[in-house]
């Protein structure tokens, strides 16, 4: 529900407004000023990177994949660590965060989705926080309300956030270089790092629903982008994530850049996390087959109208795409038929449809070359 006052204007959430704009301005002005006056400092830079990784991973591995989705189970040191360093990002308690996030998955792209991207980039990125709209109730996080770590964090959230996110980096700066080091610690691994981690998370809600491809689901705006994965600890493979939210991986292919999945895997080898959930390979291939089938069918319908104007070689290519699609149509459009498919047959089907898709992409480029 939107919060509006009697004049119909949107109501600003002043605490969020001052915090989000204040930290942004302090980082943008304070950090260059500090570096100008006191010079470049490798210690502060290293502390920034360390805090960025520890707090960023606490969001992606902890708040997101562990607490919001239960993609794996973790020993208490991991739960405690991600609770402490997650608080240091000032993104709210894990209970609030997970509640918003679960509503996002449930109602994606429509009312009820707190960061619904169909309301625009600004709303999905930060507007929903500035206006404090769409705050849902906590019915969907009863499990976390009963979790000792999450409820402990809820009780002591403000001292934990300030202590871990601001006091700790300031103190580490002070131990290194007295008051000047403390100021640097406050500004660089403190405030600037908070801004960076916040906008990294915000990009997952905004750009990851706008930029990239949709290989596993075309029923939501969520997209896979390796560029965004680079700056979001692997969360940029957001299309796969929405299709298989319970999977501990977002970059499902082994080479896809997903440091969060690698961190989970290493913790698993160390015996600190277990019961890593993975989607069945057949389910992933079926999702791929379904997307390829639907998109190819739509593209083919467009090309059919122009087929007569194409050179014969392209017409033959289109005919082949059509027969490939017809060969597999029953399998991607008929749920009963799908059950008959083995992993091997699915792989063949996906490979054939990907080849057909590549041909149509080539055709698109030729058209651009000839018209442009
Ligand atoms: Zn999303
Ligand atoms: Zn999620």
TrEMBL record:
Q: What are the protein's GO molecular function terms? A: stearoyl-CoA 9-desaturase activity
Transmembrane segment boundaries: 12-36, 42-63, 156-176, 182-204
Which InterPro entries does the entry mention? Acyl-CoA_deSatase_haem/ster-bd, Acyl-CoA_DS
Report the enzyme's class at the first EC level: oxidoreductase
Protein keywords = Fatty acid biosynthesis, Fatty acid metabolism, Lipid biosynthesis, Lipid metabolism, Membrane, Oxidoreductase, Transmembrane, Transmembrane helix
Q: What is its main location?
A: membrane
GO cellular component terms listed in the entry, alphabetical order: membrane
Q: Which CDD domains match?
A: Delta9-FADS-like
Q: Which GO terms describe its biological process?
A: unsaturated fatty acid biosynthetic process
Q: Per the record's keyword annotation, is Membrane included, yes or no?
A: yes
Q: How is this protein situated with respect to the membrane?
A: Multi-pass membrane protein
What's the Enzyme Commission number for this chain?
A: 1.14.19.1
* Cellular localization per UniProt: Membrane
Provide the family line. Answer: Belongs to the fatty acid desaturase type 2 family.
Protein name in the entry: Fatty acid desaturase
Query: What is this organism's lineage?
Result: Bacteria, Pseudomonadati, Verrucomicrobiota, Methylacidiphilae, Methylacidiphilales
């Amino acid at each position: 529900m939107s919060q509006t006052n009697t004049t119909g204007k949107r109501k600003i959430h002043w605490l969020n407004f001052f915090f989000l704009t204040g930290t942004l301005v302090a980082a943008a002005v304070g950090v260059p000023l500090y570096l100008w006056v006191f010079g470049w400092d490798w210690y502060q830079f290293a502390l920034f990177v360390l805090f960025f990784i520890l707090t960023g991973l606490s969001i992606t591995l902890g708040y997101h994949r562990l607490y919001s989705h239960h993609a794996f189970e973790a020993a208490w040191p991991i739960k405690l660590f991600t609770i402490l360093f997650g608080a240091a990002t000032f993104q709210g308690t894990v209970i609030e965060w997970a509640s918003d996030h679960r509503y996002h998955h449930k109602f994606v792209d429509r009312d009820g989705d707190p960061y619904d991207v169909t309301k625009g980039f600004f709303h999905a990125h930060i507007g929903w926080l500035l206006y404090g709209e769409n705050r849902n109730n906590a019915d969907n996080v009863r499990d976390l309300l009963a979790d000792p770590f999450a409820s402990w964090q809820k009780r002591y959230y403000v001292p934990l956030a300030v202590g871990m996110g601001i006091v700790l980096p300031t103190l580490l700066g002070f131990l290194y270089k007295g008051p000047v080091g403390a100021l640097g610690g406050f500004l660089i691994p403190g405030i600037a790092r908070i801004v960076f981690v916040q906008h990294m998370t915000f990009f997952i809600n905004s750009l990851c629903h706008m930029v990239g491809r949709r290989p596993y689901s075309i029923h939501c705006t969520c997209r896979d982008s390796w560029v965004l994965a680079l700056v979001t600890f692997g969360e940029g493979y957001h299309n796969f994530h929405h299709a298989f939210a319970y999977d501990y991986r977002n970059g499902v292919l082994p080479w896809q850049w997903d440091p969060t999945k690698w961190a989970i895997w290493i913790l698993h080898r160390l015996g600190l996390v277990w019961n890593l959930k993975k989607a069945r390979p057949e389910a992933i291939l079926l999702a791929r087959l379904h997307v390829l089938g639907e998109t190819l069918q739509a593209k083919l319908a467009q090309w059919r109208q122009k087929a007569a104007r194409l050179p014969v070689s392209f017409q033959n290519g289109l005919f082949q795409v059509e027969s490939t699609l017809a060969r597999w149509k029953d399998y991607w459009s008929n749920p009963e038929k799908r059950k008959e498919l083995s992993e091997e047959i699915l792989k063949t089907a996906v490979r054939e449809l990907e080849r057909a898709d590549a041909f149509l992409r080539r055709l698109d480029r030729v058209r651009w070359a000839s018209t442009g």
